[in-house]
Specification:
Layout: H1 25-53, H2 55-71, H3 73-93, H4 95-126, E1 131-133, E2 136-138, E3 141-147, E4 151-157, H5 164-168, H6 171-177, E5 182-189, E6 192-198, E7 224-229, E8 234-237, E9 244-247, H7 254-270, E10 274-279, E11 296-298, H8 303-323, E12 338-343, H9 347-350, H10 356-372, E13 378-384, E14 400-403, H11 410-416, E15 437-442, E16 449-453, H12 458-469
Parallel strand pairs: 9-13, 9-14, 10-11, 10-12, 12-13
Antiparallel strand pairs: 1-2, 3-4, 4-6, 5-6, 7-8, 7-16, 14-15, 15-16
């Protein structure tokens, strides 16, 4: 009899059953019903979203099929021809309305379906705009898309812990990825931004100045129209209670901004409600084209110009002293004209002047007018080519800053403020073929705006001079001070 050998222990695994096998039968049916309801709800929501995002593409076939089944093919063709005729008449009668409410909606649906939706996931991954956490990928959500012909406005919901600066650093890559000329980033609200994909330039055409009017009451010093924005609205500059600084290289169109302001103010100047005072250090090459618009004008940067600035600074202080305890702001009912000081090349007065004493006197006078002239009714319109701090050290005193074509990228932030270039204000990329195009930043508005000033020709300036001197028009002298000394003189 052999030796006893213990059998080997059983090494088989314990059988495991799916969890749903252990669930009672009634709960299975209830769970299945809940899952079915969930899929139905999700499907309905997605169907509604498709209809909302593509209303023309989805509703047109449904309406066509319903009409065909209900009325037949003949009435359907008649209705189609009638609808086509209505669209043609609409486009001919009111083209802007037709484009905005009709054609651009169709373009919006087409570009969303063929450009943004198919490329969105790939572009977000390659641009490193997605984030991963807990084994899950977080991707920015494509929300609303609106096409306006020259640009597409794409609203995006950012992922958590993402900032708009991350998108601003990738603007150029996003523009090329979606077939646009450029891309701008705007913050709508927390976690929601809007990308402007620009396809063409709506400001490429020259803007002619409007006809002159004799209605001085129509001149609103808070809303002086000097051109048009890229969205088609009038470009308005605030003069009352504000100071304006225009910066641009030679040939960028600074004169267009200057004369557009004067053109709009012409009815009020003719009526004596507005007084223009000018300094042209270039010997009158610019302001000398229409001297009749100015109550007093100096064509150099020497003692005469500095004395004029100091007279205006003294008048600012004197008028402020008279207003003290009586009124807080200048008004037309005061009986004193609103004064606009135009300096064609501000740097020649406050930076390039060889005489140090004259330079310092001019800088002090200009700073006095810009810092204290808001309430008494004084506004400075200064034009300069070099925006560096050592040239114009008081840029912060100008509430509206206009950046025309600039040479360097760093100059954009010098003029418009930190971060303006990152938000799309590419003043250094303005073409030489579009003088008068600029980016504008106004205090109180976070986003810079792209605009173009009217093009004022030499013939327009001749017309302006004739308008100002026609009939019994007079150029008003400076108001007389209480001590009897006049603060101004006759027109030069």
């Amino acid at each position: 009899m052999g030796r006893w050998v213990d059998p080997a222990p059983f090494e088989g695994g314990r059988p495991r059953l799916p969890w749903w096998v252990l669930v009672p039968g009634r709960l299975k049916w209830l769970a299945a019903l809940l899952v079915l309801v969930w899929f139905l709800v999700v499907g309905c929501v997605r169907l509604v979203l498709v209809v909302v995002r593509y209303p023309l593409v989805t509703m047109a076939p449904l309406v066509t099929a319903w009409c065909s089944l209900s009325f037949g093919l003949g009435p359907l063709m008649v209705a189609g021809l009638s609808a086509s005729g209505v669209l043609v008449l609409w486009a001919g009668y009111d083209r802007p309305s037709f484009l905005r409410h009709g054609w651009y909606r169709l373009v919006t649906e087409f570009r969303r379906a063929t450009v943004y939706v198919p490329r969105w996931r790939m572009v977000m991954r390659l641009a490193d705009l997605t984030k991963e956490g807990g084994g899950r990928e977080y991707r920015p959500t494509l929300r609303r898309v609106r096409s306006e012909g020259w640009r597409d406005r794409v609203r995006v919901r950012m992922v958590p812990a993402q900032s708009p600066e991350e998108w601003e650093l990738r603007r150029e890559g996003l523009a090329h990825s979606f077939g646009a000329q450029s891309c701008r980033v705007r913050v709508v609200r927390p976690r929601v931004i809007e990308l402007d994909f620009v396809h063409s330039d709506p400001l490429a055409r020259v803007l002619r100045v409007p006809a002159l009017s004799d209605d001085a009451d129509s001149v609103d010093l808070r809303r002086v129209v000097v051109g048009r924005t890229e969205t088609g609205r009038p470009w308005r500059i605030r003069l009352q209670g504000n100071q304006v600084l225009g910066v641009g290289v030679q040939g960028s169109g600074k004169a267009s901004v200057l004369w557009s302001i004067v053109w709009h103010l012409a009815p009020a100047v003719k009526a004596g409600m507005v007084r223009l005072v000018g300094i042209d250090p270039k010997g009158g090459m610019e302001l000398g084209q229409c001297p009749d618009a100015f109550a007093r004008v100096v064509y150099d940067n020497g003692p005469d110009a500095v004395e004029l600035l100091e007279e205006l600074a003294a008048e600012v202080r004197e008028r402020a002293a008279r207003y003290r305890g009586v009124r807080r702001l200048w008004a037309r009912s005061n009986g004193e004209p609103f004064t606009v000081l135009v300096v064609d090349e501000l740097a020649d007065l406050v930076a390039y002047q060889q005489d140090r004493q004259l330079r310092e006197r001019a800088a002090r006078a200009v700073q006095t007018i810009t810092s204290q002239g808001r309430a008494p009714g004084f506004c400075v319109v200064g034009l300069v080519q070099d925006p560096r701090k050592e040239v114009v050290g008081f840029r912060h005193l100008f509430g509206t800053r206009v950046a025309l074509r600039l040479d360097e990228t760093t100059q954009v932030d010098m003029v418009l403020g930190d971060g303006a270039r990152a938000r799309g204000a590419a003043a250094h990329e303005i073409s030489e073929q579009t003088p008068g195009v600029a980016w504008v930043k106004t205090d109180g508005k976070a986003q810079p705006e792209r605009v173009r000033a009217f093009h004022v020709t030499d013939q327009d300036l001749v017309e302006l001079g004739v308008f100002l001197t026609a009939g019994d028009a007079t150029v008003h002298a400076f108001p007389t001070r209480p001590d009897g000394d006049a603060s101004g003189g006759a027109a030069a």
